Amino acid sequence: MDDYKRLGDFFARYPELYYSKGSVILNGGDTNNRVYYLSSGVVKEYSVSTGGDVFIIHMYHPGTFFPIFVFENHLTEIDYFETVTPCRIKTASMSDFSVFLTGSHEILKEFTRRLLNSTYLITRRLGVLAGG
Q: Could you tell me if 42 and 60 are in contact, meaning their C-beta atoms sit under 8 angstroms apart?
């Protein structure tokens, strides 16, 4: 079975929430015990420096989930998650999602691939910001 379909099937049992454009889903400093699955729309993850500068970390598209650090030891968000377009989002508890991830070698492999890809994109962006 396709990994995106399995991910969608997992979240299908959870209620869907609707967010308008510009809605902040998670604020930096929020305590979070949920994983968010993006059914439609675009969400940006960003941080804000002490000087007020905004640094966009990642853009999430339909079929993806956030925050990427979904295990119980990461409950306080340091980044902000805001809708760029109107969005439909489903949420599951981190503990349920953790069981789902670790219950399948293929799903865990896909999660690892996504994590590595996100890390690669962030390091590329940092290189550009540093003038490289």
A: yes
pLDDT single digits (tens) 60-114: 999 888 887 655 555 666 789 999 999 999 999 988 988 888 887 887 787 788 7
The predicted model scores a pTM of: 0.82
What 3-state DSSP class applies to 90? strand
Print the SS3 string covering 16-82.
Answer: EEEECCCCEEECCCCECCEEEEEEECCEEEEEECCCCCEEEEEEECCCCEECCCCCCCCCECCCEEE
Q: Mark residue 42 as left, alpha or beta (left: phi above 0; alpha: psi -120 to 50; beta: remaining).
A: beta
Q: Which domains occur in the chain, in start order?
A: 3-125 (2.60.120.10)
Cα–Cα distance, 115 to 9 (Å, whole number): 21
